């Protein structure tokens, strides 16, 4: 079917008119073409180095949505409005458009700088500039409508106007999030902010545009019902956005869900206009296939949001929603639309357009398979390293658009020059000949192969998590017991610190099949039994252990650090008299702990690491590879502190030349020291990038622990918000049970809230004292093993350390000069040992302990005592586990002053360093 010419002419011109008349979009235009490319390049760079970038997730999302997408909406909605309405150029000149784009660019830049740096005046200024730019944009759209002749598809401009109203509202919600609200109000505003911007600003612009753009991209007539369907859908979508926002702000989940369902219904009604063109000419190029994929991910995102809102867990799943809406929907929509629009906007006739689009179509199927199948895999409960390798491949597939975009522009420009710049524009409604399909079977196979390679690499890096590496058969010593030929099967649930059931009785000689399922939503579990070991299972995952012939009693346990000691054991009893009891399996033992080795200790080894001397702390230790800087920076000027803490399990040096597999915040143990003043708001995003459940507890804030301190499984995140109301040095730590194991493994840190009137000093240092419990004395990162829980329970540390590494400040000394005033903050993080901090050769004239001044204080002269005589002093700062404070002193002469815990056995275990004082 061919539409009448009057209808075809309403489709946006595929090759806009020359600059001297009509559309102004032809040719290269820096403010139109380059900012979107810039924001996409920055998003890729942040993704590559996200571990070292503050608020990296927020930044990546907003580089795409606020940066690239918003800029593109400004540019192309103006272009389509002009193509549809055919208004005079003087109504909105290129110079006028450039001013708006420059204002948008400046405002976006200020917001993207202000949020990570917590310069809220910068954020507010940027938000205002962006809002002014978008309202200016809306006024120009209204002006075009009022001056245009009657015509079809004016409804598209109405979509743009409603969308433009949504963005300032969404920006206001986002700015309010920075005020440090309660968790309840933060969650409400987060939903309102996300949905107003995603479904309003972006969603309405997309639906308004695709009514005409979609059939143009497919090079086929549009559905004759398209305008009618669009007119009916707009009120539905607009009302649903009001319902969603109202429900979110009022905390009425069912109202929010009903609004989302109504929005989905309006989208489905609108989508009927896209179905007929797609049936007539299915997508054959990257542009159309990418836009189609984006629309599918939009539907997935809305469905996921409905489920999360109903459960009240949106704030904990921002990462999941971000992946769906940003990668699946926004990024694919942007790259697909630009793949079509950029060649046509550059103009030059059909052959020039085809030349540019040919570049955009390169490896189309390969990219689409990797992006869409890879994203789906990343959203599934796959092992963390598999998720990492696949996500890197997805990022590369997305980033491939950038050089292709540059190449396509260069190809179009060269083709124009070769044919001459005086080519006339295409007539309205004219069609460029449809190229051969870019979605080839060979590239599809290549995309699947690339994903399989990425999966293989991830599995190779962590075979146990992928269910590999365990012995394939049962106890090899059961050959003396004849098999009965019968099977005992039991389903075992792992939840909390319990297997249910935790005992099974099996007739001698039977085959035993244990079907283990992890029903724990917060952490991973596994089971080792009879020489076999399941992989670590995430919530809902299952694995089997098969013992071919049961010959006697056995005991198994969860091998996650601390879980066995917390009671997570599984016992196999037998019925009948065994013909032979396998060695090591009687009396509750087993012959296969981890990788088949005997396991009287947590990690399967029976070697007890020596402590208090050689070989851990020898007389001639090697240099510490990466010492921790003890210098304490002043409190930042901001009153709201946004910090991302990522739970990671990495090998770290715990003594010179000695390594342990540490559980960390941001790859360091102890975690980053946070600092502020009374009244400051701390917004902490905890991201679990480890292989087991983790959590966080901040002593610096007072709030109900139920939600913010809950354990989250690998791959998830939560937001923890508190207001600092009292001064002191406060401990934060992972509160997942067994808590002693998580703290001892390194998941602790300090929050310093300055007392009012705290005077400046010449030097400030922070020392976090903690213990290290070694399972083996590993001399390289590759040999590192995890914390030994048996030693924790026996309070038998191998090392006691300042800032995570024993004796590191013997070599890398703290520095001061004679007469300098030095303040040393100390936190006894434990988990078991107290601290008696002392500076050999020094005397404390000021002592602040657990929130009160023991000696000296603001207004007191240096050296004054609480009795007012000026002769009192202190020799130690005594702290129980989790207590903290600081001391101040001045050194009378040059020299080396030892810093120790005066529990001397702990000083000998590594709680030792030097303050070097020079003239």
Automatic annotation (TrEMBL):
Residues 650-756 form the Plastocyanin-like domain. It comes from the Bacteria. Keywords: Copper, Membrane, Metal-binding, Oxidoreductase, Repeat, Transmembrane, Transmembrane helix. Belongs to the multicopper oxidase family. Pfam families: Cu-oxidase_3 (PF07732). It catalyses: nitric oxide + Fe(III)-[cytochrome c] + H2O = Fe(II)-[cytochrome c] + nitrite + 2 H(+). Its EC number is 1.7.2.1. This is Copper-containing nitrite reductase. It comes from Ornithinimicrobium ciconiae. The lineage of its organism: Bacteria, Bacillati, Actinomycetota, Actinomycetes, Micrococcales.
């Amino acid at each position: 079917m061919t539409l009448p010419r009057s209808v075809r002419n309403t489709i946006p011109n595929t090759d806009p008119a020359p600059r001297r008349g009509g559309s102004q979009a032809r040719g290269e235009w820096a403010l139109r073409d380059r900012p979107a490319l810039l924001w996409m390049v920055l998003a890729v760079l942040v993704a590559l180095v996200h571990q070292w970038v503050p608020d990296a997730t927020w930044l990546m999302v907003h580089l795409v949505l606020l940066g690239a997408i918003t800029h593109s909406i400004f540019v192309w909605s103006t272009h389509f409005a002009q193509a549809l309405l055919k208004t005079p150029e003087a109504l909105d000149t290129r110079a006028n458009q450039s001013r708006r784009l420059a204002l948008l660019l400046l405002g976006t830049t200020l917001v993207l700088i202000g949020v990570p740096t917590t310069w809220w005046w910068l954020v507010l200024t940027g938000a205002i500039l962006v809002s002014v730019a978008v309202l200016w944009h809306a006024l120009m759209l209204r002006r075009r409508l009022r001056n245009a002749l009657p015509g079809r598809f004016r409804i598209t401009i109405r979509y743009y106007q409603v969308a433009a109203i949504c963005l300032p509202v969404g920006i206001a919600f986002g700015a309010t999030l920075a005020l440090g609200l309660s968790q309840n109000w933060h969650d409400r505003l987060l939903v309102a902010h996300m949905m107003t911007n995603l479904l309003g600003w972006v969603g309405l612009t997309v639906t308004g545009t695709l009514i005409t753009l979609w059939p143009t991209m497919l090079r086929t007539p549009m559905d004759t019902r398209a305008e009618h369907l669009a007119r009916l859908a707009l009120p539905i979508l607009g009302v649903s956005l009001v319902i969603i926002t109202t429900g979110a702000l009022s905390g009425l989940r069912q109202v929010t869900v009903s609004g989302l369902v109504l929005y989905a219904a309006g989208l489905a009604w609108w989508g009927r206009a896209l179905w007929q063109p797609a049936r007539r000419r299915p997508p054959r190029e990257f542009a159309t296939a990418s836009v189609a994929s984006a629309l599918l991910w939009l539907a997935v995102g809305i469905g996921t949001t409905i489920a999360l809102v109903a459960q009240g867990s949106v704030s904990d799943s921002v990462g999941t929603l971000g992946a769906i809406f940003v990668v699946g929907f926004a990024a694919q929509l942007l790259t697909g639309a630009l793949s079509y629009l950029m060649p046509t906007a550059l103009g030059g006739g059909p052959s020039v357009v085809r030349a540019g689009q040919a570049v955009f179509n390169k490896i189309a199927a390969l990219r689409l398979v990797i992006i869409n199948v890879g994203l789906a895999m990343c959203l599934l409960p796959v092992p963390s390293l598999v998720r990492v390798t696949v996500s890197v491949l997805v990022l590369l597939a997305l980033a491939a658009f950038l050089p292709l975009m540059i190449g396509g522009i260069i190809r179009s420009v060269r083709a124009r020059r070769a044919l001459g710049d005086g080519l006339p524009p295409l007539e309205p409604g004219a069609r460029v000949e449809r190229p051969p399909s870019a979605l080839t079977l060979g590239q599809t196979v290549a995309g699947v192969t690339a994903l399989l390679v990425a999966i293989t690499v991830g599995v190779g890096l962590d075979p146990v998590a992928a269910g590999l590496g365990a012995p394939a058969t049962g106890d090899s010593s059961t050959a003396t017991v004849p098999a009965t030929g019968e099977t005992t099967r039991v389903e075992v649930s792992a939840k909390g610190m319990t297997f249910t059931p935790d005992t099974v009785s099996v007739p001698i000689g039977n085959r035993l099949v244990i079907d283990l399922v992890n029903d724990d939503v917060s952490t991973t579990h596994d089971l080792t039994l009879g020489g076999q070991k399941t992989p670590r299972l995430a919530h809902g995952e299952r694995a089997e252990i098969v013992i071919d012939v049961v010959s006697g009693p056995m005991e198994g346990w969860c091998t996650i650090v601390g879980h066995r000691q917390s009671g997570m054991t599984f016992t196999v009893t037998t019925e009948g008299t065994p013909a032979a009891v396998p060695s090591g399996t009687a009396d509750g033992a087993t012959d296969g702990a981890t990788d088949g080795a005997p396991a009287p200790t947590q990690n399967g080894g029976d070697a007890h690491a020596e402590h208090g001397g050689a070989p851990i702390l020898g007389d001639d230790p090697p240099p510490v590879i990466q010492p921790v800087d003890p210098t304490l920076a002043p409190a930042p000027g901001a009153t709201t502190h946004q910090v991302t803490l990522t739970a990671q399990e990495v090998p770290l040096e715990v003594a010179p030349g000695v390594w342990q597999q540490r559980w960390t915040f941001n790859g360091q143990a102890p975690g980053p020291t946070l600092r502020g003043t009374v009244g400051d708001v701390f917004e902490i995003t905890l991201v679990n990038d480890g292989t087991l459940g983790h959590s966080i507890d901040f002593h610096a804030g007072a709030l109900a622990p139920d939600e913010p301190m809950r354990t989250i499984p690998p791959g998830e995140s939560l937001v923890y918000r508190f207001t600092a109301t009292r001064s002191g040095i406060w401990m934060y730590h992972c509160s997942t049970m067994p808590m002693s194991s998580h703290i001892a493994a390194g998941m602790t840190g300090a929050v310093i809230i300055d007392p009012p009137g705290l005077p400046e000093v010449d030097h400030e240092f922070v020392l976090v004292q903690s213990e290290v419990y070694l399972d083996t004395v590993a001399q390289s990162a590759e040999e590192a093993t995890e914390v030994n829980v048996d030693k924790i329970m026996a309070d038998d540390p191998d090392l006691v350390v300042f800032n995570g590494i024993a004796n590191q400040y013997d070599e890398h000394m703290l520095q001061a000069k004679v007469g300098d005033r030095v303040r040393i903050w100390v936190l006894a993080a434990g988990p078991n040992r107290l601290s008696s901090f002392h500076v050999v050769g020094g005397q404390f004239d000021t002592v602040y302990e657990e929130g009160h001044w023991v000696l000296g204080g603001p207004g007191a002269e240096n050296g004054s005592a609480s009795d007012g005589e000026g002769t009192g002093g202190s020799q130690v700062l005594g702290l129980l586990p989790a207590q903290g404070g600081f001391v101040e002193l001045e050194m009378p002469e040059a020299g080396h002053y030892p810093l120790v815990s005066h529990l001397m056995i702990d000083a000998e275990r590594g709680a030792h360093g030097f303050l070097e004082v020079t003239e």
